[in-house]
Every structure is written in C-alpha cells, then in structure tokens.
TrEMBL record:
CDD domains, per database record: AdoMet_MTases (cd02440)
The Methyltransferase type domain, residue ranges: 268-349
Keyword Transferase carried by entry: yes
InterPro entries: 3'-RNA_MeTfrase_Hen1_bac (IPR024026), Hen1 (IPR026610), Hen1_N (IPR024740), Hen1_N_sf (IPR038546), Methyltransf_12 (IPR013217), SAM-dependent_MTases_sf (IPR029063)
Listed name of the protein: Small RNA 2'-O-methyltransferase
Lineage, uppermost ranks: Bacteria, Bacillati, Actinomycetota, Actinomycetes, Pseudonocardiales
GO BP, sorted A to Z: regulatory ncRNA-mediated gene silencing; RNA methylation
NCBIfam families named in the record: bacter_Hen1 (TIGR04074)
This enzyme's EC code(s): 2.1.1.386
GO molecular function, one term: metal ion binding
Domain of life from the UniProt record: Bacteria
Length: 438
C-alpha cells in the first residue's frame, strides 16, 4: 500500500507518520514482516509505502490469497506500524495532525470489488477501481474478484488511516484471527467520528465482526448512542407520548432553552458535528448569527448538506486559540470535552474561556454514574469509543468550578434526561456566565 501527498512541503508526511523519509524500517508483526520506506520524498510530493511480507507457511494455509492481496493482515500491520498517526497525535506539529491535506492511496490488489465505492465514497474519497483479470494470458476467463484500488481526497492522515484500518478487513470478508468482544471496542475506536454516520455502518459492523450477531448488535447499539447518527437527530416524526424522549433530543432542547433565556443572538457551536443543534437554532428567529466549528471535515460536509447557507461552518481544533471566535454572545460545547485528552483540556479552556470569552458557555457531558443503567455497557467502559474520559457529577463540578474561578465566570448546573434517584441524570449540563469586569 502507498500513501502520497502533494501538500507543501510534502515531506511533512514524515512528521505525521512518525517515520523518517530517509530511513527504511522493518517491523515484525503477527503475519510476517512489515517494511516502511519512501519511494519519493521531496518538497513537491511524498510517498510512503507499507509492504507486508507475509509468510504463507507460518499461516498454515497452503492455498491462500493472503500473501498476494490486501486483507485483514495488512490492516493489522497498518494499525501496528502507524498507531500513533492513526490516533491523530503529532507532538512536534500538533496543528499538522488536525489539517486535511490532499492524499492518494494506492492498493494494487484488494478484494470486495462490489463494495469499494459503497464503502469509501461516503467518506469523501474519489474511488478508481480497476478490475484485475483472472489470468492475463487467458482473457476469456474474465475478471478476478480483485481490483487495483486508488483513493484520492483531502482528509486528515489520521482519518485516512482509520478508514483503511477498518475497511480493509471489511473488503477482505474473512478476518484471520479470532473475534471476541474486544473487537467491538477496536471497531468503534477506529471508526470514531465517521462510522456512526456511514450509510453502510451495519454492513461494515457485520463484516468487520465476522458476522458474530451478538457483537454486531452490541456495536450497532453503541453506535446508535452517538448523537451524530441516530435517526432522531434529523427526522421529525410525530411525537409518541408513550415513548421516552431520546436523550440526544433532550440535550439539544436543554441547550436551546438556556440560550433563549440568556437573550443570546450570536451563537457558536463548538464541536458541531453534523449540525443537529444548529438546525434547531436556525429555526428560532432569536438567533441572528450562527457558526458551527468542528475538526472533522466529514462531519462538516454532512452539516453543509443539511443546513441553510446562512449558517457558517468552519474547520478548526478547539485546543488552539482562534481570534475569529471572539465576540459571540454564547458558545456551546455539547458532548465535546470528553473527546479531548484530559491533559489537553487546559488548552481548550484557554481557547474558549480565556480567548473567545463569550458571555455564556453551555457545556454538556455524560454522567459516568448513570452508565450502570445501560445494559449494553460492560462495567468500566465508556458510552462512545472515542471518549477519553467520563466524569461523575462531583468530578464535573470540580472541573467546572475551577474553570469558572480561573476565568471570571459564575457556573450553575442543570440535569438533562430522566434522572435516576441515586445515579442522577444521564447527562450533566453546566452554564457558565461571564462576570462583569472580569
């Protein structure tokens, strides 16, 4: 597999992948040896190659395509060799890891020819899949089940790697190792930010989890808890009084009521995702200027498709100060902070409360205590694979009180969702109000 960029300077790809362009490296993996090298590395274009040298005898498969075609073996090697890059971390150039750049992926032989367009195009890739003949000397035999695959697009490198890590086994259709409950976590962690919104998420989950129905149900149930994908985010059917109000809707309604009460007119949704809250806000004439900010290009593409043109959308990382965010009456961080590594929260605090300084900040986050009510969650696991933490009510109050004291805000708390008498509400909400003269 090769990954190419023409972003200037193109050699920045080495920073993102944590692999020096001037070195050829080899890594032992379960299927053999993974080699990483750069066929080209200059200012104009940089290409990294991942070559998996499979030992077919060690695999114990006398007749197999695995030494010759991309499969779950390549995905495992990719996840092992480029793990840090796939997690979106780049200590030397953190802003680079958050930037979408032009990318081209080439895989000379991959199966699942009938699926490649369905899987990659919804993620923003342009797909060129050239069928490979069964035998070049006998054209009458027709095409094989394999294609020469080329993907082009403008994405974060971390997103591109996570797409390949998940979808190569899906195209393969036959994982080479035993699937257990930990595979559900791997799928949701690697698919965070895009799998939940994918139109083929059920097919992806089913094939990635080797058609193990129990694991597939668990994965889909946890994906449904992701606010950006549940149908109720965008559908507006007749309310059924016999059914509980979905938590995602309760969160948006709670935020909307707080914003109405403040009299805010100019509102920025920080971490807006696919824009569900913005859609509610745009319907209310009180709000005259709306801005949605998110680090995910794919989420912003979905939001753009669903929102009117007067709603401005912008890609930005919330851990960096952005002077264009100053002057807004209110900012919302709805189910956002738990997606940020705790050690990076001070950077987010400085950006939002220290630099942007809106008059009102609304923050929601899961109540970790309430997780005991979710049957699909194993004890100790989070509601979403991309969550870095989930706080108890006391932990959230400690954080919010500290932020308010440091940056000159008063803070109050509201429950969201039907509360448990012992465990509290499923979602906790804090309203920060800037103090005069601070």
């Amino acid at each position: 597999m090769t990954l190419t960029t023409t972003a200037r300077p193109a050699t920045d790809l080495g920073f993102l992948l944590h692999k020096h362009p001037q070195r050829a490296q080899a890594f032992e993996v379960s299927a053999g040896t993974a080699h990483v090298f750069y066929p080209r590395a200059d200012e104009q274009e940089c290409t990294v190659a991942l070559l998996l040298e499979v030992d077919p005898i060690a695999l114990g498969e006398r007749v197999s395509d695995r030494p010759y075609a991309a499969s779950s073996l390549l995905a495992v090697a990719l996840g092992s060799v480029f793990r840090t890059a796939m997690n979106g971390r780049c200590e030397q150039r953190p802003e680079l890891a958050e930037t979408a750049i032009p990318l081209r992926v080439h895989i000379p032989a991959v199966g699942g020819a009938q699926l490649v367009h369905r899987l990659f195009e919804p993620l923003g890739w342009q797909v060129a899949a050239t069928p490979l003949p069964l035998d070049t000397e006998f054209e009458q035999w027709g095409d094989s089940p394999y294609v020469d695959l080329c993907l082009t697009g403008e994405l974060r490198v971390a997103d591109a790697l996570s797409h390949l890590y998940v979808l190569l086994p899906v195209l393969d259709g036959s994982k080479h190792y035993w699937v257990d409950h930990t595979e559900v976590d791997k799928l949701l962690r690697a698919g965070a930010g895009w799998l939940a919104a994918h139109p083929e998420r059920e097919l992806i989950s089913r094939r990635y989890l080797a058609h193990q129905s129990g694991f597939v149900r668990t994965a889909l149930a946890r994906l449904a808890e992701s606010d950006e994908v549940a149908a109720q985010e965008w559908d507006t059917p007749e309310e059924d009084p016999a059914k509980p109000v979905p938590l995602a809707r309760s969160r948006r309604q709670a935020a909307l009521e707080v914003l109405r009460g403040t009299g805010a007119k100019r509102v920025v949704d920080l971490g807006c995702g696919s824009g569900a809250l913005l859609r509610d806000l745009v319907r209310d004439k009180q709000f005259t200027e709306l801005l949605g900010v998110d680090v995910s290009v794919r989420a912003l593409q979905l939001a753009r498709e669903r929102l009117p043109e007067q709603v401005e959308l912008r890609q930005s990382a919330l851990t960096y100060r952005d002077s264009s965010l100053t002057g807004y009456d209110a900012a919302v961080l709805m189910e956002v902070i738990e997606h940020v590594d705790e050690e990076r929260l001070p950077a987010l605090e400085r950006s939002v409360f220290g630099s942007a300084r809106p008059a009102t900040v609304v923050v929601t986050t899961p109540n970790q205590e309430y997780n005991a009510r979710y049957e699909t969650l194993v004890t100790g696991r989070f509601r979403h694979a991309d969550h870095r933490f989930e706080w108890t009510r006391a932990q959230f109050a400690h954080w919010a009180d500290s932020v308010a004291a440091q940056y000159g805000y008063a803070v109050s708390y509201l429950p969201v969702g039907e509360p448990d008498p012992v465990l509290g509400p499923p979602t906790q909400l804090a309203v920060f109000t800037r103090q005069e003269g601070r």
